Structures are given as structure tokens and as C-alpha cells.
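Class prep. Write one:
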Amino acid sequence: MSGFADSLSVIDGVVDAPYCMGIYGKGGVGKSHLAAYTEDPFYVAMEHGTNLIKAKKFNVHPKSVDEVFEMVRWLLKNPDGFKTVVFDSLGFFQSMVYADVMLKNPTTGGSNPQPATSIASYGYHSGYAMALPYFEKLLVGIDALQAKGKNVVLITHSQLKNVTNESGESYKITDFALQSPNNGDVSELLRRRLDVCLYMESTARTVKKKSNYGNATTVPLVGSRPEVTIYTRATSSFFAKVRSQDESKIHDYYSIDPNDLDGSSKAIIDAVTSM
């Protein structure tokens, strides 16, 4: 009888494997549209905004975590005709997770159980702990998709979070808009798993305008598109990363050219995925 050890062999060199990418930023910054420039994408579209993206997707939006997992199983059974799977977005998936946790655990438990009105209703952050396995199950599905040769893109919104350093000083950082208590930290789970993580930031173009009193104020430039910057390396303010054979070829940030949205977006995706 052959065992696991009998299936092992040695690889000496670089392995060309599918990637797992995260894209996060504020709503409306263009995360879903950027993902459309990955290779032959297929959207597991939990947000209705993806209806406007010209890419493959299912004819319905999932309404529960079970339906999301059914879609993953369908993709595994029907792997032809796409190269990248885009989950859009994890924030919507998290809402489905919380709904399922509360459906299966309608009271808070303990000596004085109360109706569970939110995921925070459960004592000692136990609601978040019950939610974490759903994300771990999703990562198992992602592993299976990558084993089929598929790239995976995970999209989520950003939010400001309070953190405290070792000296006890508090400050704010931009992070995934996902749960992050100590016993159910989805954000940290994803950070370890991603090969590429892009943080997108939109900045309005402005001009100086003088008032009737001679004072100059800064106002948005009417009729102009905001400047969109995509960051690839972490700073003290946000998380980002790109795993690459030659990191010198990866810029700290890229900008989307408003006059060439298609060309510049595709060039950015090509640059950060040529690992």
C-alpha cells in the first residue's frame, strides 16, 4: 500500500502557481472594475453593482453562505471557460455569515440567555469565534480552486481601526472592513493567506478658489475624475504586499490613468501578478 510519502518528489526552482489576491478600499473607488482586468474573470457576485461589469457571473446573487458554497462547488465541477474567480465582496459574505450564526444560535446562551440581536450579543466575543470557521471553510474552497489552476481575487471594503502599540500609544490604521477581535480575526487570517494585497485610495482633484474676502479655499475640481492610487507595500497606515521573484520590479504604488482606464488598469494587474 502506497502512502503519502510515496507521492512526494523534489522541486528545485520557482513554482508557477495560481495567485490569491486581495483588493480593498472605500466604496466606489473601483475595486470591482480593477478585478475585471485579471485573466478571464468569473464573479461570485454578492454585490449587485457587479451587474454592470462585463464579465462572467452567475444569473443570481447568493442570499446565504450555503448558496455561496454551492457556487464554489459548481465552479469546481465546471472549471472550463474562466481563469480567475472573483469573490465580490467579503463584506457581504460576512453579513451572510452573521445571519447564519444567529439563525443557528438564536439566544446568547449562559445562565441568563437573551435573544441574539447582533453578532456582538454573544458574551466574550464568542459570536465572532463562531463566525470564523465560515471564513476558514471559504479558504478551503479557495485552495481547491487554486488546485484546479484558478487565480482567486477577494474584494472587501476598508475601514479605520484603532490599534495600540507596545508602548500603549493608540493610533488609527486603514484595514479590511472585516471582524478582527482576538478570537475571530478574519483580517489576520486573510493577510497571511494572500499572495498579493492591493490597497486602493481615491483622492479628489482640487483647486484654490478665492472668496469675496480675498481668502483662498480648496474646492473639488468640477468635472474631473478623482485620482486613484493603488499601493503594493505596507506602511504604518495600511497593509499591502506583493510576493515577487524580483521585488525591485514592483513599484510602491501605481496610478490609474483617467484617460486610459483600460490600458493602465490592465498594466497594473499584469505588473503585480507577474510573480
